[in-house]
Design goal:
Chains: A mainly alpha, B mainly alpha, C mainly alpha
Helix content of chain A: over 70%
Oligomer: heterotrimer
Helix content of chain B: over 70%
Distance between the termini of chain A: 48 Å
Number of domains of chain A: 1
Shape of chain B: globular
Order of helices and strands of chain A: HHH
Radius of gyration of chain A: 14 Å
Number of helices of chain A: 3
Radius of gyration of chain B: 15 Å
Strand content of chain A: under 5%
Mean pLDDT of chain B: 89
Number of domains of chain B: 1
Mean pLDDT of chain A: 91
Distance between the termini of chain B: 42 Å
Structural class of chain A: mainly alpha
Low-confidence stretches of chain B: none
Largest sheet of chain B: none
Order of helices and strands of chain B: HHHHHHH
Chain lengths: ~80, ~160, ~110
């Protein structure tokens, strides 16, 4: 993985983080969390940790779905 | 030795034709195969698109269909030849069941794409160019203009009927 | 990390179980794979910018799908081993499942 691709993935992660932090709509926030997770995955894979990446690829969407359930129950 | 950008163009075109043909044949625009597709179809229609094209785009988002199958087949052939592609077919089948999709569009798309990518590698187009070609193909459908893409898919759906 | 593992014999075993790069038979991705991965990265960045600029929240989901395609492509290209394909497939299926849950919850549909 060359420096440019690693820089692009870091930029994607930062943009996703800032976007998720500043937007108001709850569904857009969850999409922002998905972008953060997606930006981080190539950086993990580039070191050879394919199994860690596969585990995270299951954990991050499941956490997003649990947040969705919590927010759903929080509404009246 | 074919120049790189020509290989990418040929790979993108063949991936585009394959996944649109398999999806239209499996009647993805007809109804919502999964529940989430209806919400996306309604939002695309609100923006001025075609409801059938929007349903197909919603089905592409909500469940692994032939587009995902083609991408994973290309990744499989890149890493392990034909057996890598068949491994990808099994993974796409499992993914379809996880996303509560009863159809077989993804599995057949992945199966056919395995052979398409393998024949491509024998003809001189490297497997990694099929990966980037598939990403470019899905970009033209879902990443540029939803209105025009859904109208185009609606036109193709009318041709099928 | 390798030096510490070699001095303590019982910790050698995890080294055999780590990813494919621990095997000397695997080479790093070639030139064309690096080019393809870079193009996928540019498409991913474009998709993130379109996600931010889109006003309607349900219409952000197709752009998120393009982003997932590009990231799965990068992950599969970085490791020329079937384990890379499995990781890319796991990421793509997870992202699709999450988009499906978002869209169906927005529509007031099935709760998981």
């Amino acid at each position: 993985m060359n420096l440019l691709l690693a820089g692009i993935c870091c930029l994607i992660t930062c943009i996703g983080g800032v976007y998720a932090g500043t937007v108001r709509d709850p569904y857009a926030k969850l999409i922002g969390i998905g972008v953060i997770g997606g930006g981080v995955m190539p950086l993990i894979v580039a070191r050879g940790y394919a199994d860690v990446a596969a585990a995270l690829a299951l954990i991050i969407p499941l956490s997003t779905i649990f947040i969705l359930q919590v927010c759903r129950k929080g509404e009246p | 030795m074919i120049p790189a950008f020509l290989q990418i163009a040929i790979a993108a075109l063949s991936c585009w034709i394959l996944f649109i043909t398999v999806d239209i044949l499996w009647a993805l625009p007809r109804e919502g195969g999964v529940v989430g597709a209806k919400a996306i179809a309604a939002a695309i229609e609100r923006g001025g698109g075609h409801i059938r094209g929007g349903t197909m785009m919603g089905n592409i988002v909500s469940s692994p269909d032939a587009s995902a199958g083609t991408l994973l087949a290309a990744c499989g052939v890149y890493s392990g030849g034909i057996f890598g592609g068949l491994l990808a077919t099994v993974l796409v089948y499992v993914g379809n069941r996880i996303c509560h999709d009863p159809g077989y569009a993804g599995t057949t798309g992945c199966f056919l794409a395995t052979f398409m990518v393998y024949i491509g590698t024998q003809l001189g187009i490297a497997a990694e160019f099929f990966v980037i070609g598939m990403v470019i193909a899905i970009l033209t459908i879902q990443g540029v203009s939803h209105r025009h893409a859904s109208r185009f898919l609606g036109l193709l759906w009318r041709l099928r009927q | 990390m390798e030096a510490a593992s070699m001095s303590e014999g019982v910790f050698v075993l995890p080294e055999y179980l780590t990813g494919p790069f621990s095997s000397p038979l695997l080479q790093s991705p070639g030139e064309s794979a690096e080019l393809a991965a870079l193009l996928c990265g540019i498409i991913a960045l474009y998709a993130v910018i379109r996600i931010m600029l889109e006003p309607d929240v349900m219409r952000k989901l197709p752009f998120l799908n393009v982003f997932s395609f590009a990231i799965a492509g990068i992950m599969a290209l970085m490791i020329p081993h079937p384990l890379g394909t499995v990781a890319a497939a796991a990421y793509f299926i997870g992202s699709t499942f999450e988009s499906n849950a978002l869209a169906s919850t927005y529509a007031g549909g099935v709760d998981e």
